[in-house]
């Protein structure tokens, strides 16, 4: 054998062993059920990840509902494209330092939760996205017990994706998949403004 | 003043101070330029975040190109929806433990990079997505110096998004925004299989 052939043979043998291990793990993961995904942390990418899942779900012909709890702008790229293919509710009125009115924020959040709760009680929705919900709990706009109960009692096969910084510990506990997005570096801190098509 | 009115007034004053600080930061971030975003780490959400940005960019009428370096399946939800609105290239042949053939993987990666390099040399592309590129560098399928040079010499206003686990340190260095997605919990480890519409 040439050196190259020998190296390739060793590589193939090593990878065959790795494949056996990975295939066994995949075979073990055979439960089919609705899951809850929590995307939290202070890094860029939480909402865009949720919207990528919206695109995936729509691409498979699934029924998707989106509620945006804090955002109040309707000129976003995500809504322009994805909002054509699913139910999309922009129900926020901005962050609390924008509104400076706790009572009004609370009423807005409660109205948004009413829409979310309707979806979480309707098995025809395959995927429900609750974008920036975490803030409504950390700012105490919404009653945590009601939120957790509605999330946990949703239809068995329904997926739900929750985004936002600083999720309360109970959201970590009830989620099946939790990703914490850590901000290692952000263009914004180098003086670059939020870019159309990436950040909105 | 009632207790409630007083509490609301204190809240409003505190939030007005916070808004002044945040607005000053936003005013400082006034540079408009193409940025590079790196999404790495072992948590769920890297590719879906990139695809959410594809949706955003398409929604704003921007021109987007996508190259998938490892994935070889073309039945994904993301391609079904987003592939209708942009240039989408699935150019991988699976992870190295699937193929068990280093030389073939290297040739596939080089062919994929040729497509990526063409886009990175064409200012008509507003956003270029290099999905799972990181593996081609950590597995040494591609020459790191060429990749870094092509990324850095791209058109000034072009955005590029790179995804994948274990990005080499040079990718961290040249990126403007780096998010590290940490896997706190994953449904897969609890025996739940990859769910259509969320993970593919």
TrEMBL record, chains A, B:
Q: Where found in the cell?
A: Cytoplasm
Major localisation = cytoplasm
What pathway, per the record? Cofactor biosynthesis; adenosylcobalamin biosynthesis; adenosylcobalamin from cob(II)yrinate a,c-diamide: step 2/7
Keywords carried by this UniProt record: ATP-binding, Cobalamin biosynthesis, Cytoplasm, Nucleotide-binding, Porphyrin biosynthesis, Transferase
Write the Enzyme Commission number(s) for this entry: 2.5.1.17
Q: Which residues form the Cob(I)alamin adenosyltransferase N-terminal domain?
A: 5-24
Task: Say which enzyme class the record assigns.
Answer: transferase
Transmembrane parts of this sequence? none
Enumerate the Pfam families for this protein: Co_AT_N, CobA_CobO_BtuR
Q: Which GO terms describe its molecular function?
A: corrinoid adenosyltransferase activity
Note whether Oxidoreductase occurs among the keywords: no
Q: Which NCBIfam families match?
A: cobA, PRK05986.1
- Under which name does UniProt file this protein? Corrinoid adenosyltransferase
Which organism encodes this protein?
Answer: Iodobacter arcticus
Gene name as annotated: cobO
């Amino acid at each position: 054998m040439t050196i190259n052939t020998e190296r390739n043979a060793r590589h193939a043998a090593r990878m065959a062993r790795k494949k056996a291990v990975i295939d066994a793990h995949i075979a073990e993961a055979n439960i089919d059920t609705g899951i809850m995904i929590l995307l939290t942390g202070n890094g860029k990418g939480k909402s865009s990840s949720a919207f990528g899942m919206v695109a995936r779900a729509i691409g498979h012909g699934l029924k998707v509902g989106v509620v945006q709890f804090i955002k109040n702008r309707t000129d976003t790229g995500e809504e322009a494209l994805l909002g054509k293919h699913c139910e999309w509710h922009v129900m926020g009125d901005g962050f609390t330092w924008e509104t400076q009115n706790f009572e009004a924020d609370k009423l807005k959040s409660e109205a948004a939760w009413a829409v979310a709760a309707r979806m979480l009680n309707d098995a025809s929705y395959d995927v429900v996205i609750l974008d920036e919900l975490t803030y409504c709990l950390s700012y105490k706009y919404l009653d945590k017990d009601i939120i957790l109960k509605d999330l946990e009692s949703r239809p068995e096969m329904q997926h739900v994706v929750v985004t936002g910084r600083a999720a309360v510990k109970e959201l970590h506990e009830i989620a099946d998949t939790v990703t914490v997005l850590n901000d290692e570096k952000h263009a914004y801190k180098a003086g670059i403004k939020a870019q159309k098509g990436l950040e909105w």
